[in-house]
Amino acid sequence: MNSKKPLILISNDDGYQSNGIRTLVSFLTDFADVVVCAPEAGRSGFSCAFSVVDYLLLKKRHNIPDCEVWSCTGTPVDCVKLALDQILVDRKPDLILGGINHGDNSSVNNHYSGTMGIAYEGCMKYIPSIAFSSCDYDPNADLSYLRDYVRLIVKKVLTDSLPKGVCLNVNFPKVEKFAGLKVCRMGWGSWTREVEACKHPRGFDYYWMTGHYRNDEPDATDNDQWALAHGYVTVTPSKIDVTDYEVLDKMKTWESL
Amino acid sequence: MNSKKPLILISNDDGYQSNGIRTLVSFLTDFADVVVCAPEAGRSGFSCAFSVVDYLLLKKRHNIPDCEVWSCTGTPVDCVKLALDQILVDRKPDLILGGINHGDNSSVNNHYSGTMGIAYEGCMKYIPSIAFSSCDYDPNADLSYLRDYVRLIVKKVLTDSLPKGVCLNVNFPKVEKFAGLKVCRMGWGSWTREVEACKHPRGFDYYWMTGHYRNDEPDATDNDQWALAHGYVTVTPSKIDVTDYEVLDKMKTWESL
Predict the structure, then answer these.
(1) What is the pLDDT of residues A54-72, one digit of tens each?
(2) Residues of chain A numbered 155-214 and touching chain B (CB < 8 Å)
(3) Residue B212 lies in a domain
(4) Which residue on chain B is closest to A241 by alpha carbon?
(5) Could you give the number of structural domains in chain A?
(6) pLDDT in tens, A194-229
(7) For residue B244, is it within any domain?
(8) Is there a domain that residue B241 lies in?
(9) First CA to last CA distance, chain B
């Protein structure tokens, strides 16, 4: 790979065989070299988790046209780390992408998302990084209508880069026609009724994680929840430095406790 | 549990049998009711991951004096969710604690840490939450010398609470005598050389995640890296809202692309 095209590393949390990652690759191969390193199977909700104890395997795959594909037994973050260390040895990627995720990662889902984990990992390696997610949870959804916005955002970031320590959380509403693009903050929301208790045929209790999302700012019009509900593509610049500087200043009094 | 003592829920990412969690409980039971719900075994590096697909089991344990102990087959975040939904049905905790972790969670480790995952989860449930971690990686280290600072910080938060959407990342240096307490930002650092490739006896390659931490701000004196290296206990207020508002303002021009 000594082309003059930019090099894009792509991972996801739905697995290397998912529809979303194949669609994302298809949007980019005419102007970029693309390498995929993605989990063997679904790793939704894996956040920034990486494999501290387990060993990892990499396998070359051939399921997506026009790009090099690897699957990894680990988490989305493992995929990025392994790709940078073992696959892209001679050439650092110009951009790292997560997605397209089947399911949105707006609001507090930012924290649970393996797709965002990929973007955070790239960002911690000082490489411009973007997570793409769709509000359409159907794993077989036709996502080809996201093409124009994905290409626009990718090309913009390849041209302008991103500030140090900031990656993008991009979410697409499930609509016939987009209302436009909104650069907006993440909204406040909560997952409620998150556990479904069941009885095993052998008599013991077991539990599934589930949940119902509650918008905790139903009147706000400046966050990703409002924008997605009104048909906008949302772009939320998300920070690695999670320090709350305002609170830090106020808490300085603790130093003399 | 109808006592007038505050109720503290504790989890960790080293497992319910770890030394750190037992030590933390022992610091608190004279003034608080304590319930532990922690992973069956080590879940280091699990970040905010939760179990989207796998079922979970809870087991009552009896290994820590003066408190109710449960082990869970899932992640640290699963432990918090299950405890709130299934164990603490009649009484919401006044405080959620993660730790004491065997290994520090300063700098970018904030993002990978299961101990911080516990604090973020509590914070997303609008419950004051603190992660405690020690720079001593020895799982058998005597952590009893952290008692005074842990009690001071816990009592301060029980009295004053914490602002909405902010939890505390507290790290202890491994020193004979603490220099004091610093409320400080997270430092910038990177993990490098993160993969060790090995050859399996059956001929294929496999990989371990490892890594060497590099301080990317060696001259800074206002971050957790400096403070820990100089013997201070560090307190970093960490935010749920990861939106970068400065970058957001600048990126508003994207809306007319």
Answers:
(1) 999 999 999 999 999 999 9
(2) 156, 162-163, 165-166, 180-186, 188, 190-191, 193-195, 197-198, 204-209
(3) no
(4) B186
(5) 1
(6) 999 999 999 999 999 999 999 999 999 999 999 999
(7) yes
(8) yes
(9) 59
